[in-house]
Give the backbone structure.
Amino acid sequence: MARPADSGLPYSFLLPGATRHVLLLLLLLLLSAFTHTSHASFTHQPPLAAQEATETEVQSLNSTLMARIATGSQAEARLVALFQYLVSQSNATVYYLLYDPSFPGSAGAVAASSDNGGGLTVFRCSSSSSSLVSWLQGIQKVLTQGYSPVTHRNVLVACSASRTSEIFTQIRQVGLESPSVHWYVVLQEEEATLDLFSGLREGTQVTVATRGGVDSYQVLSSYMDMRGEIRFQEAGWWSWDSRRGGTGGGGDGGGGKQKVAQPLTRLASQQYGNMGGRLLRTVVVENSPYFRIRKFPDGTLLPGDGIDVNLLNILADKLNFTYQLVEAEDGQWGEVMPNGWVTGMIGVVARREADMAVNEITVTGKREGVVDFSTPYFVEGTILVSPAPKEKNRAFAAFSPFSAQVWGTIVVVTLVMGPVVAVMGWLRQWAIGTSGLPTLSLNTLSFTAFRSLVVQGNLLGPNYVPMRVVFFFWYLFCFIIYAMYAGTLTAVLALPAFTKPIETLTDLLEAARSGDLFPAVVEGTSNAFLFKDAEGGIYKEVWEVFDPATGYAKNYDGGVDKVMNGPFVFVNARLGSEVRAAARGVQKFYISKESFYPQSYAVAFPTGSPIRVVINPILTSITASGVIGKWMKEEVLKVTKSVEEEKNYAITLVHLQAAFFILLLGFLLASAAFIAEKIYHRCALYGLAMGMDGAALNFLRHNSIGGSGSLASRERIMWDSVMNGRACSSTPASSPTLLPRHQ
């Protein structure tokens, strides 16, 4: 027979549904016979080995076993009937039997439901504690995987009181709590007490049958009290009637017919659908707009408002519980560290110091290994918050309509236009003659071409047809250039240009490598570990340029403040970023339109918590209603500041500064030309004076410098000094002054 596919364990034994009752009873008696006749044989088998048998082996022992049934001990038959009754109260389809040979009767387990295709897997515990731990660790995944009422799993424990106590101690350490697992325990020792189950944690469901007499058992079921502790309540009595088998009753064990007052197995929805005002500990951190906390001097924490506060209040109202806030000391969301320690809110829940955590908690693979998550109630992407792009310098806005290449081409064409037309005129004069037409100079033609380009009209009338054709197309060229320039310039002035914003992680990476902007994240969040744990790709590259000394923020508000006060780009979820940017003035930030790394928010619970089972349908209903989206819009509107300024579309000095710059440039060039002309003129005078004879100098001095005063005073002084110097060097000693000063 094949063992169950979901057990994943060796030494397992599956009994098919069709012959289950008979074969299980035969197996029970077979185990009992081995226990009484050859107890020592168990000590030489593997510690955790289940006793395997094939269908052929069972059939070969039919005659012996049938005889055993007929003459079997009353204790063995009573125990089989008790287990059969216990599991009949459950809808489980999969059963596991954990027993030790010292248990009186070497009890087996019997599947409760009829014809449901279930099976039984049998395990025997040796006296070794380490082997028990190994078995529990091996079966953990099988027992705790996915909850569903259809796949309930029952574990039947038929062990001594000391071994039972050890089993449930190890259950706490291994973490076998699960709403899909129910433990059925039979205590044969009359002196055994419920102290064996002290320290059970939520998620462990136990039904105990304690021996109250020779043929009677008191049946008790576990439940959670108002303080979150597991208690036991009496469900009734079960007694053995050798004529009729076991019957549920409330009498003295003589085979009464009264039914058990309380159900032995209840679904999580039945146990937690109404918690009766139970107090749940909820771990949080200050996190607007999701969970705002009101702190008092005495350390008391009360919920303020926020999206997750609204969500928690609805859950409390639906399930009838109250809650007490517990703050994570490190203020982080939490993650599993390399040394195994779990930080933040996730760590508080994983250590069962709180019953749940509701606070924009992202589901990650590592977190799922230490806590259980509810159904996600919201999904959003991660975005980049960077400083608002700065407006580009508009001092040269007048040149922005055209590229440098276009401007260069226009300048060259304008400069060449005058000489080309002049050459055409000279060629025509050489070939045909002027025929009395006036000749146009190169300066006139070049200046006319420039006037046409800047749309100042043309005062020149072309003298002949070829020149008229050239100027016609030149005017058309100037019109196109002017129209394109004027339209583009208007658009440039109306819509100012800005620096490139940070839109993607690639943009952030380029900015970080150029030293302009650097990534920032909140320490201990899923966003931080997204980059830190990356093994390659863009996430790894961003982490390589990340500086932990300056890039970590303590909380989300601190991350947004980093963007305002320093060269940082904050990596965060969209809603929280938009709310915080709006509160500080949205015009100060740029929020990327593209998003990455979708984040699913869910409620975190300790492993195996049944509360998750009843909360999931409520969260699904809340999400489908769209109320969470409504809360989010309200949060954005609540903190949004009015930052709209009256827009002025009139042209200002900022728009015209390029024109004034050109005018200033013209004055500077004119001043430079004046200085150059001055220098050239002085040099020309000096050269002229040095080359004239005495008569010419006197004539020039009296007619140019005389009473007319055509030269400036400084030039006259220079002229006199030059003349006098020249006279001294060329006049004989007997001659008096060659150039007497004009009176």
